[in-house]
Amino acid sequence: MESKDYLKDISEIKNLMNKSSRFISLSGLSGILAGIYALIGAAVAYWLVVEYSKGTLILDGKVFKLVMLDLFLVAALSVITGILLTTHKAKKHGAKIWDATSRRLVINFLIPLVVGGLYILIILNQQKYGQTGALMLIFYGLALINASKYSIGDIRYLGFIQLFLGLICAWFPGYGFWLWVLGFGVMHIIYGSWMHFKYDVKK
Looking at residue 97, what is its pLDDT? Predict the structure, then answer.
């Protein structure tokens, strides 16, 4: 009995340490919805480019600005949805939504993402469009891997997938749009579903 109690105590201590060092209230459902937003946004962007600019984008053109607005709305909806669902999950389990651990998570996630976003804006201003999709995937993948140290470790695998797709996209820039759809749309839905059934449904 003493041996079993000892092992139980070790397990509880380990769980408490894990909870104190990692933010584990991320919602799998938010990943699914982010993927759906990305697919809808990609469909709108595709329609705009094909319908109004004959398959080409011009930096100062109206269509380009609409596509950028489309991408911004996709990102904003994904972030807002993620915050709302993660907050709901944290409250449901009596966990803090904003503490030292969640701050480290956000900071480590934003560093590669913000740097990547600024770099992409710089090259777009230079009218270099070819590697945009690849850079989005690569910097997003780096952000996920960097943040995984302070959250559910499984998200690093999604980060590795995004990096892999980004490198393929860099090698075959002509397929950038479809690889972006695969990375931000399809993979988010698949991975979000897996995370939802692994962590959310059971708890």
Answer: 67
